[in-house]
Every structure is written in structure tokens, then in C-alpha cells.
Amino acid sequence: MNTSISPESANVKVGPAVYSVQQFCEAHEITKVLFYRLLKDGLGPRIMKVGARTLISVEAAADWRREMEEGAQVLPSRRSASR
Q1: H or E segment at 14?
Q2: Tens of pLDDT along 28-59?
Q3: Burial of 39 by CB count in 10 Å (0-12 exposed, 13-18 middle, 19+ buried)?
């Protein structure tokens, strides 16, 4: 007897496997101009071309977020500086 539950039968919403450029930008609250500037500067997410479409996998998006976090500077709190 198969007791596994498929996402469809459990009414589980499964997220997208890929983002379009527009979806990626909306999800990460950046503009398309910034997205393409990041790509040009070698700082954008890995992309894949499918026909004429440019797509970003959820894995590439997660890797990009991690890289952005690792490269971010930690700035001192304004509260600690004023004390």
C-alpha cells in the first residue's frame, strides 16, 4: 500500500522551480536595471537561457542571496555609536 501523499492531494502549494527575470526582480525587490547591471558586473545570479527566455533557478537565486550576504559589510549600529 502506497502511503505517500502527493502535494496535489495534500493541497500543498509548491513554489516555482524557476524565476523569470521579472519574477526574480519582484521577489528580491530589485529593478530590472539593477539586475542587468549586476549581471554585467559579474555579480548577478546564474542564469539559463531556454529559447529566448532568461530564467533563474530557485537554487541559483538562493546561492546568489548567500553570496550577497557573505559580501555585505556589517555596519556598526547607530545606537552603539551614540553611546
Answers
A1: none
A2: 999 999 999 999 999 999 999 999 999 999 99
A3: middle
pTM: 0.70
* Distinct helix (H) and strand (E) counts, the chain: 4, 3
Per the structure block, which three cell numbers stand in for 33? 536595471
C-alpha cell at 78: 547607530
CA distance 55 to 77: 37
Identify which of 44, 49, 51, 50 has the alpha carbon closest to the alpha carbon of residue 65: 44
Residues in a beta bridge with 57: 18
Which H or E run contains 76?
none
Cα-to-chain-centroid distance, residue 3: 34
